[in-house]
Design brief:
By secondary structure, the chain is of the alpha+beta class. Helices cover 70% and strands 12% of the residues. Helix 1 packs antiparallel against helix 4 and helix 2 crosses helix 4 (41-53). The longest helix has 42 residues, at 73-114.
Amino acid sequence: MTADHVFAALASPARRELLRLLLDEGAQPAGRLAERFDMSRPSVSEHLKVLRDAGLVAETRKGRERHYRLEAGPLLEIRDWLTPYERFWRERLTALTSLLDEMDGNAAEQGRQDG
């Protein structure tokens, strides 16, 4: 799958919540996942299909049930894509912190001179 498929799958809050549940609670049947949502079971199944098509979950059958588990591999490509932006914001926030510290120091110095 491409990064575009993964981003499209992650665009839905319901699908992000499904991934979070699978991360926090491990593999589980579709029915148990569907119980956690205020939508029909077929709607949850459609969200799971989108996640499966994007490679973010794997499906196995156990009898009549379909069990889903998280497949985090495609998220590595997204992480790699986001890394330069994280670096960009970290540098900006560091510069802002330095500026605010400098302004605070100047204000304190001005207060001593006025006092």
